Amino acid sequence: MFRPVSNKLDVPALEREVIERWRERDTMSRYLARNDGSDRRFSFIDGPITANNPMGVHHAWGRTYKDLFQRYHTMLGEKQRYQNGFDCQGLWIEVEVERQLGFNNKQQIEEFGIDRFVELCKERVAKFAGIQTEQSKRLGYWMDWDNSYYTNSDENNYTIWAFLAECRRRELLYRGHDVMPWCPRCGTGISNMEAAEGYKDVRHLSVTLRLPITSPDHDGEDLLVWTTTPWTLSSNVAAAVHPGLTYQLVEGRDGRRWWVSSGSKARVAGDAAVIREAPGAELVDLTYSGPFDHFPAAEGVAHRVIPWSDVSDAEGTGIVHIAPGCGQEDFALSKVHGLAVVDPIDQFGVFGDGFGWQTGRYAGSVPDASEDLARDVAADLDERGLLVAKESYQHSYPHCWRCGTQLIFRLVDEWFIAMDPLREPIGDSTRSATWLPEGIGLEERELDWLRNMGDWMISKKRYYGLALPIWECTDCDGWEVIGSKEELRERAVTGWEEFEGHSPHRPWVDAVEIACSACGGVARRTTDVGNPWLDAGIVALSTLKWNTDREYWREWYPADLITESFPGQFRNWFYALLTESTVMTGQAPMRTLFAYALMRDEHGEEMHKSKGNSIPFDEAADRIGADVMRWMFAAANPAVNLNFGYGPGHEVVRRFFLPLWNTYGFLVTYARIDGWTPDQLDGVEAARTFLDRWILSRLDGLVGEVGEGFAGYDAHRATRAIEAFVDELSNWYVRRNRRRFWKGELDADKRAAYATLYEVLTTLCRLMAPITPHLVDAMWDNLVAGVSDDQPDSAHLASFPERIEGRADADLDASVDLVRRTVALGRAARSATALRTRQPLRAARVKLPAGREAFASDPRIDAELRQQIREELNVHEIDFIPDESEMVERTLYPLLPVIGPRHGASVGAIMAGVRSGAWSLNEDGTATVGEATLQPDEFQLTARARPGHEVAEEGDVLVALDTEIDDELATEGLAREVAHRLQALRKAAGYEISDRIRVGIAAEPEVADRLESHRAWLADELLAAELALGPEAAVGDADAAETADLDGVTVALSVARA
RNA sequence: GGGCGUUUAGCUCAGCUGGUUAGAGCACUGCCCUGAUAAGGCAGAGGUCUCUGGUUCGAGUCCAGAAACGCCCA
Fold first, then answer.
1. What pLDDT is attached to residue A886?
2. Structure ipTM
3. For a disulfide at A264, which of A236, A313, A508, A913, Cβ 3.0-4.6 Å?
């Protein structure tokens, strides 16, 4: 016997119960092991979650996909690895630990001790990995949690060593001297792909200044330059012009004359008189005096004009200030033109010696204007008469993606992986994978990034992260890459003892010195750590034991699926994965990449902690439950941003969870009353009704649809199909079958009803198991596990449903569809009559679509369907309306795609003629509309309602009602009304559905007489053991009573328990 | 600055290769129904389909231009 089901659905409470049951029964372990013996594989590689904070709801979106696709393949019987991953190294963690310790810069870390700092970083990731593990379990994410991978593991780090050694072997790795974006707070370079993440609009003080030309024959002439980074002016060595642009010498202030490009002249110099024009090429090689030539750092710098085709005059003056120590393009130009390179600032963004008053000052922009260097530069220039203009200028500027500090560009030595030789092979890998969802150009976006990608800067001047296995000789220029721990042990000259027993992290690994293979000198490890995307990108190799068990790797590589949110990952994880895997294996690490967009709040706004609209995972799990979230995530269109919030969450509960839960509750309620159990199947097949076969047909279609959806990583499609099915189940199948469950004895018909609904619900449990594991198992435990010994005790140990031959029946589906349309139209017509639905009517008249003569071709089924319509509409008869009926008129419907090309300009006239009724049919099958003749293939005839009848129509179906009420109908309506009132009293008295009662109906004799003819029906309807009817009729000890006025008829009603 | 995308009801979004009167869900209003339902049904209100021009018998849909917003790149 089933346990009773509460009609209140509290999802979080239900989930807690289910989780407790799973714990008691060790369900998850059995799930993880259930396919151990299978020879089929589904390989999923998890993209590591940053173990740096508790999860937000946005993490739960991706984890829902990861879980549900794995669950689906588990139910198909495929063996899997179920390995979750944590991202555990990198600047993001250092920044949080610094914040905890109250540190602001690197010196404080070094004073604190790198070893202690690194230990704190490790502790932090361990702590949050633990928290995220618990949160993931709360989500219902079933993974092999004791076997999670951590990117700070030895395995991961040493696999990257092997990768870098391979890069070295193929001469892809190099030490570069270049200008890179630099975070002065973190004291480290930022790779271009990270910098791309942090562009924000900010205002900077921009200045326009004059640079006096020192070449002969240019006395009194200045070059006008404009810059948004005044701090770089003291490093100026050149001014660039576009050789093809036209430049103008114009009248300036204080008797000076200024050179500007013609395109910028109006903006920069207004209507100043033009003295002469010259192409940019003519200005090349002119010399000028720099803005800060009196600083020692500028000593010996010969400032001159150089040509540069990237100069534009859309902004500024068309003459660009060049400081090779402060800009990437500037540095590249310095190589081309042999310019001096002035390198002004240190790792903290502070000017070094030789920069006069700027020495010791911070170069970057600061919030406090009084300390802003740009302001002081402008004032200095103004004092010396060099400032022409200044303004606050808004532009998009890179910021540190972890700490938010504005980046500055700085000359550094960093390690790079050359991309040119890799573009093609990585492109091939990219193209070999399937990128889903389709239609949003995911693959093309990855390829676009690959085409434009600069060399990958992999080093960071930090403390906690991958120790780059690069040893640099202290005597010669030599450097080498160590590919493994074993190799390091062999090569170690000193420091091995200090390192042994530690993870390959700073500071321990820094102690190891080797002998330079070129000169024999002492080689020390570069103190740089690695870019964290190396860590995440290697997991397709490291977690599959590339270094230690190549057989295992072959078994699982490439992955069938990886999945991650796509904005941002093209240049991060996807890119790193493809690069590292392609270098090492020559192929992509995945067959399919399924990606999804970003989560927004329910109004479409970006979620931010600071805005207060971000939702912590725990809060959402407590308030609406994991399964509600999971359903929303699975139902989302992954191609577009998901608007998530409690409002939409409650809507899911109301619209979908409740009807499903109540359907389940309905089955259990009546099965308990009847003592029905799932083994009671006598005569069920033969007794199945039309509607039973219909819902099973729909179920079969659903099984196919959901399976295809999951197999194609289209959870959206699966959820849509399930929602539509549950609506049909609840609002048609159950609604139409209520009485079968309600009526007297447990016969074959009733068993068929139970068996059908039972099969539908248990199949739904298995179909939905990957999406809503808790809800489904709550139902499964009661419906299956509690009553059957030969079934798994959890839906998650069951197999995924398969289609059943012969179940799907398109005719059934079409017939029910027609019935439902007919009922909907009948209701619309009823609404128009102002007669309440409880009042029976004599007949509904139905005009069926052309070519249909009945609701079903089988007369028995047709009769069943007509009976359903009668009940729904409360009418006695269903008649059909022939085309010739006076209620119907025929309408000509021209087929526009056909007549358009043939009749051209007269289409408008034809349509007008049809609308006004000015058309006629001809003997030969053509039709005449106004002047035009339509051929038989150019139109269709359709029946439409003739005005003046109470009808409703939609498309090719029309329903009209006979609204005449005779005495018999009126009396029946009265009985229905009385029954309705008494049912309300039953409810008010708090009776159970199956309680037998006594009923009293007091009414004047004439009314009592009328009701007498419906006595048996009333008693049956109300489960009344006694029914007193007469002028004074009443029951003793009434639990509830009411005197009702029914359209002028007064009745006194009372009920009591039998 | 370059590339891509979006713009349809109060909100979130569908509208396939051009075709009768542009749809759905939510929210709103009214009515109906109810012993499975925090449910259901019917109806209503709500639209210059961002704008301008073009192609066409016919444009939300195709073309050109503009605007706003967003994303990517620089």
1. 67
2. 0.84
3. A313
